[in-house]
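Request: Give me one sample?
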Amino acid sequence: MKAKLKICGMNHNIAEVAALQPDYMGFIFYEKSSRNFTGASPILSPSVKRVGVFVDASLEDISEKIKTYHLDVVQLHGDETPELCQSLSDIEVWKVFSIKDSFDFNRLIPYEKVVDKFLFDTKGKEKGGNGYTFDWSVLDGYHSTKPIILSGGIGLDEIESLQQIFKRDLPIHAIDVNSKFELSPGMKNIEQLAKFKNYFDK
């Protein structure tokens, strides 16, 4: 596949997931999440980038987590303003927008110059990890050149659909997986992840 792989919601079997050498590993810093990460900063290969996931956190909290956990990327999953994104100019910033059946892509315009990538996730009850995909045909309306990360309910059953969306003219940088590869929140199914990653290595 012509995209990078991010495994998000890390918490319990971090070393086993890291051994698969994904491009990104995501750590959620949001107390209301069942995958909220409070452990020590893990030892990872330099080739694996650390993504910190935040939901309406303060600039001070985000900055502290960047230093404590040696984050490479900040993923903003709430109603963060363009001004806050601009304040994080020293680190790569991904801004998340949730989609169900439709989306007004004009919402992205204020963020175009202050974020590095857009992440599109499924709109649902939770701030991520809802376990089902949104209607990817909505992305036909995406006309920005900004790279995107595709997220939301992606598992082994979506491989064929992923192969189809890669044939479209979309700047997909990475695929983000989480709940479809879990035995329980934060505990990943290594066997299934290895199978899924095999498609990225072809």
Remarks:
- The longest helix spans residues 59-69.
- The helical segments are 14-18, 59-69, 82-87, 159-165, 190-200.
- The longest strand covers residues 92-99.
